[in-house]
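Model the whole thing, not chain by chain.
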Amino acid sequence: MSPEPVLLPFPERLDADPRDLRRSVLGQARGSTVVLDLSGVPALDEVAAARLLRLAAEGRAAGIDVRLAGLSEDARRLLADVDPGVLEEDLASPKIRNPLEMIGAGTLDAIDTAASVSTLVKDTAFGVARPFGKKGIRWDRTLEQMALVGADAVPIVVFISFLVGAVLALNGAAQLRQFGAAIFIANLVGISMTREMGPLITAVIVAGRTGSAIAAEIGSMVVSEEIDAMRTMAISPVRFLVVPKVLALALVMPLLTTLSNAAGILGGYLVGIAALQLSSDAYVSQTVQSLFLNDVITGLAKSVVFAVLIGFVGVYKGLSVRGGPEAVGRATTSSVVTSIILCIVANAAFTALFYFTE
Amino acid sequence: MSADAPKLLAVENVVAGYGDRRILDGVSFTVDRGEILVILGGSGSGKSTTLRTIVGLLPPLEGRVLIRGRDVNAAEPAERDEILRDVGMAFQSAALLNSMTVADNVALPMIEHWNLDRDTALMLARMRLASVGLARAGEKLPSELSGGMRKRAGLARALALEPSLLLFDEPSAGLDPITARELDDLILSLKARRDMGIVTVTHELGSINTIADRAVMLAEGKVVAAGTLTEVRANPHPLVQAFFRREALPPREGEKTLLEELEWRP
């Protein structure tokens, strides 16, 4: 330390603006000693003492030895019982990282995440690969999950899809009528629903309803040590929790998507015959002619992929929870956002793939 | 037990931590059947981490944990499961599965590992619950239980597979003195009836005096005293003395007070 200390008078009132003093102290060279003269301070209350100690700790973190002189008896009494450990808090201001460092840290995080996700996927795949037997799939829990994920979601999926089908028909009618081609609304609604809208609407609803519930449930179990308890009982959380949830999603999503397709087509049909005065027979016949089995199967195949994405995102976000209930909330939100983004990206990839291969 | 038979539990020079933070630094001790080892220490000394390391929730960075001579962390998954089936862990928070009834919680490991039908497992679970004084709580959900009842239910689940080694994290923390004493008596009766090795983590002096055959005291992740309770009590380490006398820790030799650190003396 410097043999020549820098003497700074401690202001009588520190509560007004302590920033000048802070600048003066922290502006000294590393390795120097700063002596704060408190002889002009009539009384030191706890708040002022806390600011003083914070300054001393910040000085230490910056390599400046902050000392006090002229302490009154009151100030001595106040500081006598304080543990010197308060000066050792890590107060170093967050280092501004250079872009290269940030890219490196981001890459390492991404590699960690990829490794965790691939382990989860691998363990789940092994779990699904053993359908029966003592260590096989827990079908009781899978059926329970299918009821929760599937049956309970039917009303909302049907309702939303019905409205989307009706809205598609109304919007299409405005354009197609100009060309006397209103009947082609049946094609528009049928193909849109089965290839794109049905699977996507179902995925968005399931991501919001079930993906979030999975993340919240597993996250809460992590926080309350239930997952740890399972591990200590030699019960695999993947077999007990993850496999039933992901499998249930993969099994019920095509069914929900089929209902969504039907509800959407029904919505379009009702608009067609009620608002556009199309004949019921003509609309049905046009829909049947426009739909190819391939379209329906494509949509259903996509829905299975969406189900797996939603399931794994929910489980991964839940298992990644660290901390308390607030972390569970963050994981839940993040699972919904991530699932929807991944489903939309996957949908775009599928559409592009089918477009260029057909 | 022959002299060269492996110990029920041997913790050998275990170093463990989270990230760069070391919590255990060279911890060693052993436990045999029919004895209760109490791990003592202040908050943050590494007591609960020791239990988590024993059951493989936090694999050691160095050293090893042997249960009946088999290394938990080096074992293949199937062998590891087999080792863990012989260990029961009762968590401080009980960590019961909140979506299941208490009886289902206790029956779960039996259904999973003993391949029992649910009805038989549930009856066995009720018997386990009755042995910890919870005969009528089986149909309740964990959220409907008091703190003491939850700990008992956690203990019943830890005992479900009749393990040789029981780990109990803070059995009496947050309980009234009567309930705490009842749990201590329960631990003593388990030792007597089942000839189990029991490791409990606690800093309740009353519990320590009641149940401990041997004790290990941790401070900052290191063992500072070990032996019978009498030996540990007689250990001159200032932390041990302060702990048993319920005194504030004296400043370490050479440690400065805040005023000595800060006051300017030209």
